[in-house]
């Protein structure tokens, strides 16, 4: 349920930039594939508990669920390079993808201006007079 919600949220918030859309697509695929197996085991665990609440069939699925969640975590950590591999190349220009009137996809160059301001905060120290100075 959580993986499908995340996939729906990611799909609804696509940016229009080709590279970020590719990253979002890869994230959706990884989220759904790692969440699908754990969802199946959660459903099997629920069915086993509902059908036989007095037996210990549930423990079999519970032991497996812990390992599946650990594998899903390791998969998401190991897939960072796969997800960001094409997104971090500097030699390509950014472009918006949109479909034209005849359905063909065209790429329009985008102008992006980035400005950075520097904020300097200095610490002001005030010396308190000693009681003997008064």
UniProtKB/TrEMBL annotation:
It comes from the Eukaryota. Keywords: Membrane, Transmembrane, Transmembrane helix. The chain crosses the membrane at residues 27-50, 56-74. The keyword Hydrolase does not apply. InterPro entries: DUF6534. Residues 2-82 form the DUF6534 domain. Coiled coil: none annotated. PANTHER family: CHROMOSOME 1, WHOLE GENOME SHOTGUN SEQUENCE, DUF6534 DOMAIN-CONTAINING PROTEIN. This is DUF6534 domain-containing protein.
